[in-house]
Amino acid sequence: MPLALDSAFGEVLGDNVLAILAYAGVGLILFVVGFYAVDLATPGRLVSVIRHDRNPNASLLAAAGMAAVGVIVSASIYATDAALTEGLLATAVYGLVGIVAQIVAMIVFNLLIGLKIKDLCHEERLQPGTWMLAVTYLMIGLVTALAVI
């Protein structure tokens, strides 16, 4: 006897797959916005410094910034319990506000501690200050994400 799926189950499954794709689309847009926001907060063009100069300091700072954006976007999705359209809109707004808060906090923190990101991004070897900034960026992202929730 062939396995028959309940039509209500199939409808719910289809709706959930569409919701996943929609949230993934919003998340991708926020990641792109987040990358360019991190790029603006970092002296020089990150893509160029990473791709052409193969700089490990710029790579680590960009990766930490993107991981922080990922945490913020994930929290934004988690915080929305509304219907799909409202949830997508709330995720976009929370995500953008979180990205802005992260970038402002990164700039302020960098000014306070006095590390020059531009100098770090021109060093050929991975620097201890880069590790500290990378972890700081992740923590700022986590704090921002928890504020969203």
Automatic annotation (TrEMBL):
* Signal peptide limits: none
Give the membrane topology: Multi-pass membrane protein
Keywords of the record, alphabetical order, are:
Cell membrane, Membrane, Transmembrane, Transmembrane helix
Q: Does the keyword Transmembrane apply?
A: yes
Q: Which InterPro entries match?
A: DUF350 (IPR007140)
Q: What is its main location?
A: membrane
Localization terms from the record: Cell membrane
- Is Membrane among the key words of this record? yes
Give the family from UniProt: Belongs to the UPF0719 family.
Entry protein name: DUF350 domain-containing protein
Q: Which organism is it from?
A: Actinocorallia aurantiaca
